[in-house]
Each structure stands twice: as structure tokens, then as C-alpha cells.
Amino acid sequence: MPPQVWVRNPEILMRAMAVGREMGYSRFLVQATGVTQKAVLLDSGFQEVDRLHVLFRRSTLNLPKVPESAGSARLQRASSLHVDEVIRVDNACFEPFWAMNPLALSEAVAATPRSRFRVMTVGDSDVLAGYAIFGLGGGEGYLQRIAVDPHWQGRGFATRLIVDGLRWAKRWRTRRVGVNTQQRNENALRLYLKLGFELQAEGISIFEPAPS
Ligand SMILES: CC(C)(COP(=O)(O)OP(=O)(O)OC[C@H]1O[C@@H](n2cnc3c(N)ncnc32)[C@H](O)[C@@H]1OP(=O)(O)O)[C@@H](O)C(=O)NCCC(=O)NCCS
Predict the structure, then answer these.
(1) d(CA 158, CA 67)
(2) CA pair distance 37, 46, nearest whole angstrom
(3) Most buried in the list 131, 135, 139, 198, measured by CB within 10 Å?
(4) Separation of CA 37 and ligand 1 centre (Å)
(5) 51/182 Cα distance (integer angstroms)
(6) Ligand 1 interacting residues, C-beta cut-off 6 A
(7) CA 39 to chain centre
(8) Which of 45, 44, 52, 67 has its CA nearest to residue 178?
């Protein structure tokens, strides 16, 4: 729901959550930027549970170089056959609060009008080393999700996955590509800055209803 709607009338959030509960959802998260949105949520009984950096990379920049160590990995289009492996890698990489289940995965892929979902394997194995989901909408690209299995980190695999998505976003003539990352995720921040993403002044706060 767009913030303009609930900033004027936060009661709408309560109604939306009531409908969600009827549909079987048990957890509700709301994104906020700027002091007004945050103040409205705090006044309405929400609490901040996380903070995200927002970064953008201009598409006029040249594509970053991929390290040779990532050259032998295989990139392929993700299919339904990969879902279990993607969830395994995802759960090995993210804390439970942010880890995805198959429903969240399909929502991430469907979140934008166009998306590119690629998985990475090594040698002849079907075991996934990593995956990335990029999206496209409103003339901008988004890196929705990326994870590399801890066993395969530090070899340039994330760089290769991101360069693939940046090339795709360039082909679609996007102005820029955005990504969000938890403020405490220093490895991801270093990766994005190295690849030419620029940190934006304003981040995103994540809120959920405070326990009553
Ligand atoms: C972040 C992540 C995707 C990086 O994957 P990776 O394949 O190891 O990344 P690369 O090998 O391509 O690293 C490229 C750059 O990222 C930074 N980086 C990545 N991992 C790092 C680490 N453990 N320590 C310090 N810098 C790191 C470095 O700048 C590195 O460049 P360098 O090797 O020249 O120092 C991986 O650590 C991961 O899956 N983490 C958990 C999930 C996650 O945080 N996803 C992003 C959420 S927004």
C-alpha cells in the first residue's frame, strides 16, 4: 500500500492487517522513509525492527570486471526445479527474519513487470552456489535478491551474478539500478560500493506492529 494512503489515515493499515489475518497471514511489515512516515507508524503502535541502506548505480557506468575465479561457474535461467536449492542457499545466507520460503520467492520474482532470475552452479553439479533476482519497472532496474552459498563466497560469484543483471538492465535502457541492504550487512555494502552503486542519503526503516 503506498505511504500516501496510510500517512493520511493510518487506520487503513489496521484494516489491511485484519484482512491479511483472515487470509492466514500472521506477520505484517511496513516500509517507511522520512520522518513523517516514521512518526505516523510510531504513533500508530508500530515499532522499528530493521534499517536498510538504499543504493543506486547509474546505467551509464561501464560494467564492472568479473574476477577470473568466477569464470568457470555456470549461469542459467532458474526454473521450478531449482526452487528447493534456492531456498536452501537463501536460508544458509539470511537470518530467519529475512529468509525466504517458496511463496516469498515467487513474490520476489513477480514483484516487478519484468524479472531476471539466474542460478549459478559449479562444474557438472546441480548443487547451487548462488542465485540472483533482478527486476525492471518504471525505467529502473532493481536487484531484488542475491545470495552466494557461504561455501562458495569470496570467489567473485556475486560479482558475476550482478554484472549479468546489470547488463540485462542496460539492454532494457534503464536509467539506474537500485538495491536495498540491511545497514549491518557490511559485506553486501562493500560489494555494492565496489561495483559502482552509490549510497543514498535517505534509507528505509522497517516497522511491524508492537506487541500489545
Ligand atoms: C554479499 C554476498 C552476496 C557476496 O558474495 P561473494 O560471491 O562472496 O562476493 P564476491 O566474491 O563477488 O565479492 C566482491 C566484493 O564484495 C565485498 N565482499 C564480499 N564478501 C566479503 C567479505 N566476507 N568480507 C569483506 N568484503 C566482502 C568485497 O568488496 C569483495 O571484493 P574483493 O574480493 O575484491 O575484496 C555473500 O556474502 C552473501 O550471499 N551474503 C549473504 C546474503 C546477502 O547478504 N545478500 C545481499 C543482501 S542485500
Answers:
(1) 10
(2) 11
(3) 131
(4) 32
(5) 6
(6) 93-94, 146-148, 153-159, 181, 185, 187-188, 190-191, 194
(7) 25
(8) 52
- Show the cell assigned to 205: 526503516
Question: 56 phi and psi, to 5 degrees?
Answer: -130, 145
Q: What spacing in Å lies between the alpha carbon of 93 and ligand 1's midpoint?
A: 11
- Tell me how far apart the alpha carbons of residues 38 and 99 are, in angstroms, rounded to a whole number: 25
Per-residue pLDDT of the chain (212 residues; tens, 9 = 90+): 888 889 999 999 999 999 999 999 888 999 999 899 999 999 999 999 999 999 999 999 999 999 999 998 999 999 999 999 999 999 999 999 889 999 999 999 999 999 999 999 998 888 999 999 999 999 999 999 999 999 999 999 999 999 999 999 999 999 999 999 999 999 999 999 999 999 999 999 999 999 97
Q: Which of ligand 1's atoms lies nearest the C-alpha of 194?
A: 29
Thinking of the domain 62-195, which architecture would CATH place it in?
3-Layer(aba) Sandwich (3.40)
The residue ranges of every structural domain in the chain are: 3-52+205-209, 62-195
Ranges of beta strands (E only) in the chain are: 30-32, 46-58, 74-77, 114-121, 128-137, 140-148, 176-182, 198-199, 204-209
